[in-house]
Design goal:
Layout (H helix, E strand, L loop, with lengths): L2 H11 L5 H18 L6 E8 L3 E2 L5 E4 L5 E5 L3 H4 L5 E4 L6 E8 L2 E4 L8 E4 L1 E4 L2 E2 L6 E9 L1 E2 L5 H7 L6 E2 L3 E6 L8 E5 L1 E2 L3 E9 L15 H20 L3 H27 L6 E3 L8 H6 L2 E3 L1
Parallel strand pairs: 13-16, 18-19
Antiparallel strand pairs: 1-17, 2-9, 3-4, 3-8, 4-7, 5-6, 5-9, 6-7, 10-15, 11-12, 11-17, 14-15
Length: about 300
């Protein structure tokens, strides 16, 4: 059952209400149902390809000019590697630059002017630490797995561990780089800089947009949404017309909605795993991130 049919069905019982008003109530109830439980059907996973660091090899170098954003390469493959947005480090400088654009295999522009000394035949490296899942419906990342579940850490933790992000190795930690976004796009940072290409599995909670087009369908059983929206519309119809018949209809619709919602919860629980988190009420202070990395604990 799609958005249009749900609205038309409700209109049959509440002819005093316009279709736009009914559709608005459907979406309000839609968001309420989605937020009332941590639904298992909203969780999914995808794989993300992580790209290892590229360093100079024999006969490959770059030239940079103080105060300029342009970088000229010799025997480089900037365009082929599609490195726009990558971190670009000259020699062993502490802080990398970000590649703003790539114009060819041997030319690129940094996002900000180069602050070092003008030089030719420089060694260099470029790498990527920020990634996004290749799907556009991510509300939040719940976990990332490479061989085992990687610990999620804070930016402060990584800044203390490796402030210059100079270490290399296999995927070890991750952090949310951008939190929940309304557009369903989130990104994460992987530490350390990767010494090779890897594939990780990203587990996430789906972002669900409002129903907009007539052909849009809810992500759960539509009769649950219809019953909840019908209950809302009966109450609106009573407030508009003062017809007491709507009071009884609203009461019946409320019972139907709660029964259907309970069935939906039971169905969802049948698909879920047992919870792995615990709540610590022992009043023991957490002094550092090591405890949080080793325990899945919510403290009060």
């Amino acid at each position: 059952m799609n958005f249009r049919l749900i609205a038309l069905n409700i209109r049959q019982y509440c002819p005093e209400l316009s279709i736009p008003v009914i559709k608005e109530r459907i979406n309000i109830r839609y968001k309420q149902i989605l937020s009332v439980e941590d639904w298992e059907f909203l969780y999914d996973s995808t794989t993300v390809n992580l790209i290892g660091i590229t360093t100079q090899s024999t006969g490959v170098s770059v030239a940079v000019t103080n105060g300029q954003t342009g970088v000229t390469g010799t025997a480089t493959t900037f365009s082929t590697d599609a490195i726009t947005g990558y971190n670009f480090r000259i020699e062993t400088e502490a802080q990398p630059y970000v590649v703003g654009s790539v114009t060819s295999d041997t030319a690129l522009n940094l996002e900000r002017p180069y602050g070092g000394s003008t030089a030719w035949n420089n060694d260099f490296s470029y790498y990527k630490t920020i990634y996004s899942p290749g799907v556009g419906n991510v509300a939040k990342i719940s976990s990332i797995v490479y061989q085992q579940q990687l610990p999620e850490v804070s930016e402060r933790f990584l800044n203390k561990l490796d402030p210059e992000r100079s270490s290399t190795g296999t995927p070890t930690y991750w952090r949310n780089f951008s939190k929940t976004n309304a557009d369903g796009i989130v990104s994460f940072e992987i530490w350390p800089i990767l010494d090779d290409d890897y594939v990780v599995t990203v587990y996430y909670k789906k972002y669900v947009a409002n129903l907009i087009e007539d052909t849009d369908t809810p992500v759960f059983r539509p009769e649950v949404l219809e019953a909840g929206a019908l209950w809302d519309c009966f109450r609106i119809a009573f407030a508009t017309t003062r017809n007491t018949a709507y009071i009884g209809l609203a009461r019946d619709a409320q019972i139907d909605f709660r029964n259907l919602l309970r069935e939906l919860v039971i169905e969802d629980l049948a698909q879920s795993s047992l919870p792995t988190s615990v709540r610590d009420v022992s009043s023991i202070d957490v002094f550092n991130d090591n405890f949080l990395l080793s325990h899945d604990v919510e403290t009060l």
